[in-house]
Structures are given as C-alpha cells and as structure tokens.
Amino acid sequence: MAYEPQFTVTNHLVQLLEEIAVFREKIMAATVQVPWIPALQKDARARNTYSSTAIEGNPLTLEEVRILEEGQKLPSATERSKREVLNYFAALRHVEKHSSKKIFNHEDVFQLHHIIAADVMDQGKTGGYRTIQVRVGNHLPPPPAQVSPLMRELLEWWNQKSSKLSPVISSAILHYRFEDIHPFADGNGRTGRMLALWELYRRGFDTHHIFSVDEVYWEKRQLYYQHLDLVRKEGNDLTSWLEYSAEALHLTLERVWARAQHLAVKAGPEKMVLRPKQEKLLTLLRERREMSPSEIWKAVGVSRQGAMDLLKPLIKAGLIRKVGSKKMGKYILGAER
Questions:
Q1: 222 belongs to a structural domain
Q2: Bridge pairing between strands 330-333 and 320-323
Q3: 282 close to 318: Cβ distance less than 8 angstroms
Q4: pLDDT tens-digit series, residues 25-60
Q5: Rounded CA gap, 31 and 180, in Å?
Q6: How many CA atoms lie within 13 A of 235 on its CB side?
C-alpha cells in the first residue's frame, strides 16, 4: 500500500507559505552579494546541533557546542554529551555534502542514523531498523515487523511524490511520518529532524544552509511534542502539524533575516557578487574544511593563475583565508578557526 499523507491546505497555511517564499527570496538575494555567508552557515550549524540534541536531553549550552565545533576541549562535559554533539555536526556535514541527492533508499537512512547515534544509543544498534517494540510517551509505534515495509512506503513517497509539494510541506510530512514509524530503537528524533532538513536542502530551499528551524522547536519543546501527538488524535490528519511547522520556519526566517542585517552592518558597505566558480569553491571548502592551491585548481577546473584570480577577491572580502607556511599553506573558510 502506498503512503498518502492526509491534510488540508488551509487559508492560514497558504498565507504562511506565501510569506515564507517572500522571506526566503529576500534572504537569498542578500546572501549572494555579501562576504558573511560563512558566518551565517557556521551559526546555523551550531544552532541546529545545539537545538536538536537539546530536545533529546543533551545538557550542553550553545556556547559549549560552539567550543566543541572549534575543536577545543571541554573537560567539564561528559563523554556522552560531547559525542552526541560531535555526531550531529558530522551528520550535518554529511547532509551538506550530499545535499543534491535525489533518490533515497534504506541504506541512506541507515548511514545517517549510524553517524548520528554511534556510541550514544541506550538500546539497539545503529544502522538497522529496530527489532524491539518501543513506546514514545503515549505513542506506541508499529511493531518491528512492520517497520521496514512502512519505511519502504515512505521512501517511495519521498522519491516519487514529495516533489509535487512545496518543500515546506514535504519536509514537514517526512519529519512527522518518520517519527510516527519510529524505525530505530533510539536516535529517532535527531534522525527525523535531520531528514527534514535534508529535504529542504535537496529541494534548494536552503541553498546556503543558513536556516535552523530546530531552534524554534527546542524553545517550546512541549509544544513541539504536543503537535506531533495532535496528528494522531486527529486521525492522522497532518493539517495542524503542517501549519505549526510552517509557523516555525517562518519565525526561523525572520531571525535569519535579522542576523543577516546585523552582519551586513558589521561588514560595512562594500559588497561582492560571487561568480559560479567562487560559489563552488566555497562549497568545497565547507565540505573538505581545507584545500591546498593545487587541490583548488583541479577541483574547480581552472589554471593556477585562474585559481588565484578566484581566491584574491574572496580573501580580500574575508570569505577565505590562508593558513600554514608560504609553500605548504592551505585555504580555509574565513569564519573557521
């Protein structure tokens, strides 16, 4: 049986989608012309990691999460809390690297779950669907024997039908249905929210990876759980969940726009328009963390001089900086330590 999500496109949802589209276009128009995209990306990664792990009970503060991202030690924290955060950062990098992926299968879900839940599961194993019955509050997810067939139906819907909907709606549907099936013995919340983010990335909604809707979920965690439960109380009608998710994304975009304006003031009036190869270079550096000059010109497909022509304005704008010796130096994002 194919999975068919049930919902109504209400006037409120339509209005939210229209306002979200306006906000997104305004943000995208601004971020392609300024040198502080890496700062917003780094901020979004930290907020995503902090919020999604905090929802599941991780005690680290946002500042402590930023410290771990910088590669610094945090002796006061438990190994479990640090591992959860580092795993989530690794999962974000994985999703960013594969943001354009179009077709998903069970192995993709297993791999993501393994990255997120490695060495931090209270029960079960990573990288495979659960073999035990679990309970989540008042919700009793499907028995283990039904998990794989239900996930197959969800993946078929994701691969074949989700693109007909707004990414705002499809990501929310994917998020809810995954949590409802609860396919793993542990780590479902973090994995489900990461899959929802992946849907926004692959549909090109968050092209620069600067949004953190999980932050809104975390701030009113009980409301988040209440809306997940409400779908079941309403006979699996997703309407209220879609409106709630859209409201959370709307608030997220408002905050991103405010942060962007703040960074624009700090950066001053000078702007630059990124060329396609410069955008590609920034994406490569975000994935690989650092690159040598020879790696850059081979990866981008330019000559040695062409690579320098790309790099010089990026360095001047503060987007990229060089570390190491003159002969052995490498390039990293300007916002990285």
A1: yes
A2: antiparallel
A3: no
A4: 888 777 655 566 787 888 899 999 999 999 999 999
A5: 36
A6: 2
